[in-house]
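Mods, move this if it's the wrong board.
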Amino acid sequence: MSGAPYGFYAATLRFVAAKLTEGDPRTAPMVVQLRAAARSFEADGVATIASGDLEVAARAFAGVAAFLQKEILPETVAHGHADAERQVRWTVDAAMEAVNLLLRAAALDGRPPVTLAPPPVP
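Not the wrong board. Structure tokens:
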């Protein structure tokens, strides 16, 4: 499967990763997860998160959703950009779906890796 439809999603993950301080030991693992997921979504349309990275990836995707809701979405709404608003809302939903899947897997015995497949692009 080509990841081309997820170019906006991948770019958003990279954008948020760039906003994080990579040298900060609290955020560096999240930067790694977001960049890796962006590469995978572009290449394959899916991203697999290793069992040992589930919590940090969940925090990273939650951060993406929070940043978009706080910083980006209000601007798209205020300027009446319906297409941009739809894309941002889709990205927030996709990120939160990832958080849900990652945290559910993290709670299981055996902690399986998780393959994230974003919903269809609007």
